[in-house]
Specification:
The complex is a heterodimer of chains A (81) and B (212). With 81 residues, chain A is an all-alpha fold. Chain A has a single domain, classed as Orthogonal Bundle (Non-ribosomal Peptide Synthetase Peptidyl Carrier Protein, Chain A), CATH 1.10.1200. Chain A contains three helices and no strands. In chain A, helix 1 crosses helix 2. Chain A is globular and about 30 Å long. Chain B has 212 residues and is an alpha/beta fold. Chain B has one domain: Glycerol-3-phosphate (1)-acyltransferase, CATH 3.40.1130. The termini of chain B are far apart. Classes of the chains: A mainly alpha (81), B alpha/beta (212). At the A-B interface, helix 2 of A face helix 6, helix 8 and helix 10 of B.
């Protein structure tokens, strides 16, 4: 799966878990806490949603292990092979 | 579907032994008084549930164990306790470790698995011992409990433990009606829902505070 496709799916996840509007301005460089506005709990919620959406299982990662959306995309990309 | 907990198991031996031997002295020392929000709150908690209590002192886990005395509690506690000399004690007491600084996926899985197995998981959503005894105010509640309860589809049982001013004072607990988060928020939860549940539990604790 291409990085753009992963980002698009992540935007969908953030939109459905957020207030419903798709955060189109979210890019790979967006910081999950400061730019996207996620708390540690909402990041964990996003991880759960990613697992269900992509059919992958996260290893023992902490919410502090991902700084930007790009880090999440890379992790998902590696998991998907 | 998770395998349900057995009623008796060797891993409960230490916990049950301590509970049986310390129960009577504890009753005499604390002379606990239970107050319930309603008739519904008096019903015994069966199956998986999350107990959320205020945290004002080191002995709060004991009080929470007295508040819901008929169940084994699995307390969520900081992983630093599991790295201390007392780690065997925390394991024997069936505690579940979490990294408070960097909450991770495996902790969340361990907690939801315990809830799905039918355990009573107890926690202090304030995260740390609050200044309640000094200020009279509850601290802010972290919303992790809402995520855990939603994932496992179990109710949250609010418990308020009144701070004891002296050892001669009776221990007083107020137990609220279980908040059935799975039924209340049946549709896909949002970030806002999780925060809303945390606020709801804190508001309930504030209400329970007025009962004791």
């Amino acid at each position: 799966m291409k990085r753009e496709e992963i980002i698009e799916k992540l935007r969908g996840i953030l939109a459905s878990a957020g207030d419903g509007t798709a955060p189109v301005s979210v890019t790979e460089e967006s910081n999950l806490m400061t730019d996207v506005g996620l708390s540690s709990v909402s990041m964990l919620y996003m991880v759960i949603a990613i697992e269900e959406e992509f059919g992958i299982r996260f290893d023992d990662v902490g919410v502090g292990d991902f700084a930007t959306l790009g880090d999440v995309v890379t992790y998902i990309g590696n998991k998907l092979g | 579907m998770k395998k349900k907990n057995k009623l008796f198991s060797p891993r409960y031996l230490f916990y049950d032994f301590v509970k049986l031997t310390a129960g009577l002295p504890g009753l005499l020392l604390f002379r606990p008084k239970w107050v319930y929000e309603s008739e519904k709150a008096k019903k015994r908690i069966r199956g998986g549930a999350l107990v959320a209590a205020n945290h004002y002192g080191f002995f709060d886990p004991l009080y929470v164990m007295f508040a819901v005395w008929y169940r084994r509690h699995r307390f969520i506690c900081g992983k630093e306790f599991f790295e201390s000399r007392a780690r065997l004690l925390f394991r024997a007491f069936l505690c579940i470790p979490i990294d408070r600084e960097n909450f991770n996926v495996s902790s969340l899985r361990a907690i939801t698995d315990a809830l799905l197995e039918g355990s009573l998981v107890s926690m202090f959503p304030e995260g740390r011992i609050a200044e309640e005894e000094k200020t009279g105010e509850l601290g802010a509640f972290k919303s992790g409990m809402a995520l855990m309860a939603l994932r496992a589809k179990v109710p949250i049982v609010p418990v308020y433990v009144k701070p004891r001013k002296s050892v001669w004072q009776r221990a007083r607990f107020a137990i609220g009606e279980p908040i059935d988060v799975a039924a209340e928020y049946a549709e896909a939860p949002s970030f806002a829902t999780i925060e809303k549940i945390a606020r709801e539990v804190r508001d309930k604790e504030e209400f329970l505070k007025t009962l004791v």
